[in-house]
Design goal:
Helices cover 33% and strands 21% of the residues. By secondary structure, it is α/β, with parallel strands linked by helices.
Length: 326
């Protein structure tokens, strides 16, 4: 009986989109007709409480039922006690459970942090323990040269760029805007001056070669992919849904706290805007309704009010919710 194929997905740093790429690989392999398993053997530092994010996403969006991840506090205790081999044995056990009746297993690694810089080394040891091939997940950064240097350094953890087990890299969040802080409370998104695609990265980085270390994918940044649904916002706030509308599919890409007069807030009536306003501001609610009637897709979140007229406005406005206790 052939052994399942192990594929370790490891980040070059925090914030590169490790979870989204791991989930994308699971779906892509499933579409090829393969039986896919998934395991996150060790939780990310700082996330020991509650549901493990990657595991829960897999459970909710696929038919795969991954086992539980080892809490990082337990892994850290084993490392501090000099029991690294015992930790790796536990990782191998979790991998073997995930590999039952599968063709390939996606193993999600750990992102090194300022407090835990040694997690890159642990990823390399996990890859050897389960005899996995490795895919790196990275982002482009400011220049192709700095990107190539950073990626080259990351490959050293897995034996260097010529190691046959190191398949290549996926560049995620390609051409993502940079967030600049304005003052103390506002942010602005700055688009990159130069945009890239897979061809310009291959030509300019000088690190990718066919048949050796490959550029496996270049995933463009899409603001919709990082925007929560209106339903997600309502559930997070514990809000009462008054009029559902397209709550389950509409995405929030802009948030405005509206207390101005209508004449001074109409520029906030844009597609995908979440408007937070007192429930007795009939003028704002009416302006939002008119914008929706004119074809502007928008979402709205309103604070609770006590007046009967405000309550009636809530019922008549699609895609609205009231925050409790406001």
């Amino acid at each position: 009986m052939p052994q399942p194929h192990a594929l370790l997905v490891a980040p070059t740093g925090p914030g590169v989109g490790l979870t989204s790429v791991s989930l994308g690989l699971v779906r892509a392999l499933e579409r090829q007709g393969l039986r896919v398993g998934f395991v996150k053997p060790i939780r990310q530092p700082g996330s020991d409480d509650g549901l493990e994010r990657s595991t829960e996403f897999i459970r909710r969006t696929t038919t795969i039922q991954p086992g539980e991840s080892l809490p990082f506090r337990d892994a850290e205790a084993l490392l501090s006690a000099g029991k690294r081999s015992e930790l790796l044995q536990g990782v191998v056990g979790r991998y073997r459970t995930a590999a039952l009746d599968t063709d390939v297993v996606i193993v999600e690694g750990l992102a090194a942090t300022a407090d835990h810089p040694g997690l890159d080394t642990l990823n390399g040891q996990i890859a050897k323990a389960i005899d996995a091939e490795v895919v790196l997940v990275t982002s482009l950064g400011d220049s192709l040269q700095s990107f190539a240097d950073r990626l080259m350094l990351a490959t050293e953890t897995f034996g260097g760029i010529r190691d046959p087990k190191l398949l290549g890299a996926v560049v995620n969040k390609l051409n993502a805007p940079r967030m600049d802080v304005i003052g103390t409370v506002r942010t602005a998104l700055k688009r990159p001056d130069v945009t890239h695609d897979a061809d310009t990265i291959r030509a300019g980085a000088g690190i990718f070669e066919a048949g050796r270390f490959a550029l496996l994918g270049a995933v463009p940044f899409d603001p919709i992919m990082v925007s929560p649904r209106t339903y997600d916002v309502a559930m997070h706030l514990g809000a009462e849904v008054v009029s559902q509308g397209e709550l389950m599919t509409r995405r929030v890409v802009d948030v405005s706290l509206v207390a101005r007069t209508v004449a001074n807030m109409t520029h906030r009536l844009r597609a995908g805007a979440l408007l937070i306003t007192p429930a007795d501001r009939d003028d704002v609610i009416l302006a939002a309704c008119m914008a929706a009637m004119n074809g502007t897709p928008r979402v709205e979140e309103k604070l609770r009010g006590n007046s009967p007229r405000a309550a009636e406005n809530h019922r008549r406005t699609p895609g609205t919710a009231r925050c409790r206790g406001a």
